[in-house]
Write a structure and sequence with these properties.
This protein has 218 residues and is of the alpha/beta class. Helices cover 34% and strands 20% of the residues. The chain has one domain: Alpha-Beta Barrel (TIM Barrel), CATH 3.20.20.70.
């Protein structure tokens, strides 16, 4: 089984970016303004970290904007290699976004709630570069758009991976103790971690080392 790409999310400083990259991350996540969840930093800091990051590492802007115009405006402030849409677009389409930013990868987050997520993923897969399956609930009064630290139904995620032709990242409650199980069960293109490699909100070198050791033994 091919070793998955690893994205370390909620990066909050150049020092954390260095730590994640040195540990083996192939991508880092930078969290813009959100209604809830951890890791939110200013656009100025996102731009600084993105500019520091080597070209060989993907930088993901996590944006909660839901109109194409506002997503483009948000990205123009930070210049990451990738845009991670944590909510559904309500104004404009993924195609319009791709046409406006042809060199930027577009990743749509899908919050796995039930089996309806499968058909939703299949439809979305026709319009974006990758899908990221996460725990959360965008239907709550205060939207829960990721960073929950909870595992969702991996059987659904496994079916989605088998059903689409584009890369699928798995997120939600991943840590050194369940990484191998996630890889073997879901077989995702990539794993995405935030709280599972942190202690008191800070990126933990020991947990990172433990995680990558598990990954390399899978």
């Amino acid at each position: 089984m091919k070793q998955p790409q690893i994205k370390i999310c909620c990066i909050s400083s150049v020092e954390e970016a260095k730590l994640a990259i040195n540990a083996g991350a192939s991508a880092i996540g930078l969290v813009g303004n959100m209604p809830s969840g951890p890791g939110i930093i200013s656009d100025e800091l996102i731009a600084e970290i993105a500019a520091f990051t080597p070209d060989t590492i993907d930088t993901f802007l996590l944006t909660s904007e839901t109109s194409v115009e506002q997503v483009i405006k948000h990205h123009s402030k930070v210049n990451t290699t990738t845009i991670q849409l944590v909510d559904a677009l309500t104004e404009g389409t993924h195609l319009q976004l791709k046409l406006a930013l042809p060199t930027i990868k577009i990743v749509q987050v899908l919050h796995v709630l039930d089996k309806n997520s499968i058909s939703e993923a299949i439809e979305i897969s026709n319009h974006v570069d990758a899908i990221l399956l996460d725990s959360g609930n965008p239907n709550l009064e205060t939207k829960e758009l990721g960073g929950t630290g909870r595992v969702h139904n991996w059987e659904i995620s496994k079916t989605i991976v088998k059903s689409v032709k584009i890369p699928v990242f798995l997120a939600g409650g991943l840590n050194p103790n369940n990484a191998q199980k996630a890889i073997k069960m879901v077989n995702p293109y990539g794993l995405d971690l935030c709280s599972g490699v942190r202690t008191n909100g800070n990126l933990d070198k020991a947990k990172l080392t433990s995680f990558f050791k598990e990954i390399n033994n899978s």
